[in-house]
């Protein structure tokens, strides 16, 4: 790999975020996650899978 082709790759690595523990999760993300959990639980009990 030449220096010219390696530059965009190293820049792309800095731009990509995985959502790991170092990311500051917002309260909205937590609320939406728990809402999804509750909706899935309601669906599972209504269908009778539990």
What this model shows, in words?
- The structure is a single chain.
- The protein is mainly α and 50 residues long.
- The chain contains two helices and no strands.
- The protein has helices at residues 3-15, 27-47.
- The model has no long low-confidence stretch (mean pLDDT 78).
Brief descriptors of the model:
elongated; mainly alpha; single chain; 50 residues; 2 helices
Which band does the percent of strand residues land in? under 5%
Helix/strand/pairing category: mainly alpha
| Radius of gyration using CA atoms only | 20 Å
Residues in helices, as a percent range: 55-70%
Residue stretches low in confidence (pLDDT < 50, at least 5 long) are none
* Global mean pLDDT: 78
Apparent shape: elongated
Order of helices and strands: HH
List the total number of helices.
2
| Count of strand segments | 0
Distance between the termini: 54 Å
Identify the quaternary structure here: single chain
Give a quick summary of the entry.
The protein is mostly helical.
Layout of strands and helices, then pairs:
Blueprint: H1 3-15, H2 27-47
